[in-house]
Amino acid sequence: MKFNPADMQAYSIEVDHLTKKFGQFTAVDQISFKVAKGEIFGFLGANGAGKTTAMRMLTGLSKPTSGSGMVAGFDVIHDYEKIKTRIGYMSQKFSLYEDLTVKQNIRFFGGIYGLSKQEIRQKTDAILHDLRLSEVASKLVASLPLGWKQRLAFAISMVHDPDIVFLDEPTGGVDPMVRREFWEAIYEAAGHGRTIFVTTHYLDEAEYCDRVSIMVAGKIEALDTPANLKKQFGSQTMNDVFLKLVR
Amino acid sequence: MAAIEVNNISRAYGQVQALDAVSLSVEYGELFGLIGPDGAGKSTLFRILTTLLLADKGQATVAGHDVEKAYRQIRKQVGYMPGRFSLYQDLTVEENLKFFATIFNTTVEENYNLIKDIYEQIEPFKKRPAGKLSGGMKQKLALSCALIHKPKVLFLDEPTTGVDAVSRQEFWDMLKSLKAKGIAILVSTPYMDEAGMCDRIALIQNGRILQTDTPGKIVDSYPSPLYAIRSGNNYELLKILRDMDYTRSALPFGEYLHLATHANVSIDEIISSLDPADYPDLEVRPIEPDIEDLFLELSREV
Amino acid sequence: MIKVFRAFIQKEIYHILRDRRTLLILFGMPVAQVLIFGFAVTNEFKNANIDILDHAKDQTSSKLVRHMTSSGHFNVNRMLVSEKQVEEGFRSGKTDLVMVIPTDFSKDLYTYDPAQVQLIADGSDPNMANALVQYARVMINDFQQQEYKEPANPYQVNIETRMLYNPLLESAYNFIPGTIALILLIISAMMTSLTIAREKEQGTMEILLVSPLPPLLIILGKVAPYAILSFIDAVLILVMGYFIFGVPVTGSLVLLLCLCMVYVITALSLGTLISTTSETQQDAMMKSLIGLLMPSTLLSGFIFPLTSMPEVLQYISHIIPATYFIEILKGIMLRGVGLEYIIFEVSVLLFMIVAFLTLTWKKFKIRLE
């Protein structure tokens, strides 16, 4: 974690009064925040607090009703198609095709991001080498242990060298040891200057982040480092912070 | 006799040994937690105990009845909430509750006192289809449906998965009041931080029970001193700590690293082993281990 | 137990009423299918091309040809000179019907020997062919009455029809029995297998199993509403057939409805059998489509006559319940026969019920596996 909140000059994400309304209902209500390059940013909220809607706007899947924002150097209102080429996405629910082999998955995702054959070959070699998966390169993903799958999915979400990787509940419910390995991989990616944007409602997952924002009913009600938040709310755990804030 | 008695239960799916000689017992009025990650075998054990699956080996009784021979008796006396939301999404809250009351040969009114506290929270939405409820409300409805026939033993398979922190907290509070009514509750969860809510827990991984005891005693069995360490650059620090002679294990734990050391090392020695220039804001303090530390320790031994 | 059963049925009715797709399949599909088949069969045609092979070449025969074209329905395509030319027109698709007038046509017409006129149609489109032949028949009889100026004597002109490519073309009313057989199969077998698979997919089956409900009650509770709905559909199709297309029920209506029920039970037992082997709705759907609907549509004699099929397919058609039911329906509705003429088909259906239920019983698990 080379990130230091004190000297945020380069921002990967900057949003200002971003708002999304569905008819009369305001799902996201004027949220503003900045995420520095190389930061691990936790994006928290209860079910239905507007997390998913906000993330859709950040990833260019949904057009904001009002407000402005830049993600990976592109405007969320006008250049949302370009945003998609500069971000990676991984969700615990869907990430890899289980009935394809490790290599085929890499090739497929490299292909949809427009990598050349040459680049795909290089990427494949690099991923197989870094994750020590060379021996199982031709095995179906379904046959791999969960921990390997997860790290492979993470590596594949970065196959096109995105500036930002969005992780949706990446380690909820997985084996504690697997979870640790995964976070180490995240730290490493962030160390290389990649911004990591984690949405989750598992609060212990939030403790791994550099900074955390908590959404309640469409608004960001708290945003700081986990340590400062705990101090501010006089709590021992992020879980407690969350409960105090939401209740 | 205990409410749930499990003796050396084993079960395989093809090549995969889902459960390997699992034993445990749960008393009436006890809240027993089965704690382990996804794929540890929790759901398989639940299905065996709710008579949905047969074990390959071993015996088990629920409410005094053998799970294989007396499945009919067991089915009358247990409440079961499967791992995923398993109510009729197109029926309303009220219709679901009524239906489950009827198939258990009872009525909502007859046992209303048991579910009153829980059901009152979702009653304002009783005309809403179950599929349109929030995660927390679905879970309360599912619990109400599982309780409506006043079961002696309650099986809750990962009831808090996918539910936000507030609803989770409320859910555990509900379970505490239920066990006070003498119901035996076996609950599973992948979240280590929920272990403290249970009277006793069993840690399970890869089909094997690692340890069974009260959460307090389980934590006390941690074998070595433990420190929480933090710096501006945890990832670098982690790599350096792993190379130190005094390190048993070093793992990321939220904003801290947890360092387990061999017994003969002091805080000062740890601090002095690290270059202060690299870690200006270094923080080291001894801590009590929690369930997750112990789980990691136990799974390391295996 | 009755109370539990009632609650179960009520739940099932809620499911059906709240799912538009189910409702559409239940009531939209039978109506649509009857209308589509019905209108395809009774399709009005204009200016159908008729080739004429006139061996007589006299006044009477040319009068007949004029009479045929006067209606505006037939249009003389060309005059043939030899038998060999008959198929050419059909092959090139320019000809819809060929009429062959024998050499001694006029002589026969005015004497007591029956006159012979041959109509040749393209049986590969049986509905069209049938309609053309029916119409031409009426026209010829009409002509004969005009010429003879005496009350109709149907034996005066013998019209010999030959269906090329499909020699045993059957009545146009075929579509009503066929539609009933198919619709009942879809609703009874496919819908029940889908709804049971849905309970498995959503995990509710798990809860039902871990309740004191006997498995038989679960099955009956799922099946009963669909049995009733299928029966309502059968009646709906019969009513539509009668009032819109004039398809009669010449035999006993009571017998017909009873045997509809027998067939519904056959289909339901087949549906439950499918559901015991499927874990998901998709699975159940594929099995119903490939295992039931396709063979029942193609091999039951509904669309293609059994007798013109290769032997292997004929064997397969004998294990399809719809084959027997279509025979039963045709017997009662069109030929007006009693139970004694269709006792074989009825026994086969009853035997199938016993077989399917036994298999279901053996396969239904009181546990998940």
UniProtKB/TrEMBL annotation, chain B:
ATP-binding as a keyword? yes
| SMART domains, A to Z | AAA
Q: Which Pfam families does the annotation name?
A: ABC_tran
- Keyword Transcription set for record: no
Query: Which InterPro entries does the record match to this protein?
Result: AAA+_ATPase (IPR003593), ABC_transporter-like_ATP-bd (IPR003439), ABC_transporter-like_CS (IPR017871), ABC_transporter_ATP-binding (IPR050763), P-loop_NTPase (IPR027417)
* Keywords attached to this entry: ATP-binding, Nodulation, Nucleotide-binding, Transport
Domain ABC transporter intervals: 4-231
UniProt-recorded Gene Ontology molecular function terms: ATP binding
UniProt xrefs under PROSITE patterns: ABC_TRANSPORTER_1 (PS00211), ABC_TRANSPORTER_2 (PS50893)
Q: Which family does it belong to?
A: Belongs to the ABC transporter superfamily.
Please give the PANTHER family that the UniProt record associates with this protein.
ABC TRANSPORTER ATP-BINDING PROTEIN, ABC TRANSPORTER ATP-BINDING PROTEIN NATA
Q: What is the protein name stated in its UniProt record? A: ABC transporter ATP-binding protein
**Species this chain originates from:** Fulvivirga kasyanovii
